[in-house]
UniProtKB/TrEMBL annotation:
Protein name: Putative septation protein SpoVG
Transmembrane segments: none
Taxonomic lineage from the root: Bacteria, Bacillati, Bacillota, Clostridia, Lachnospirales
Keywords for the protein's UniProt record, in alphabetical order: Cell cycle, Cell division, Septation
One Pfam match: SpoVG
Database matches in PANTHER family: SEPTATION PROTEIN SPOVG-RELATED
Gene name, Swiss-Prot/TrEMBL: spoVG
Keyword Cell division included in the entry's annotation: yes
Amino acid sequence: MKITDVRIRRITKEGKLKAVVSITIEDEFVVHDIKVIEGEKGLFIAMPSKKTADGEYRDVAHPINSQTRENIQTIILERYEEMLAEEADVATEVI
């Protein structure tokens, strides 16, 4: 499985949610609303989910195995860090 596109919408409000991401898989399938979250041990992703009638959240789409989850998370977090670095470079150039 190859992720062919990553689109990141940064969240500027204070809080644990840092970005919302869409990924395209092999130019054929898109998954929207993957969240980048700041946790106690650093950044991680949360797959798209919906709230059930009993108040629990259940993933709408998710990887079947941990290796695929790790691959998706690595790609998303690398792109997120690149985006932050580019924003910092632009801010430095403006000053």
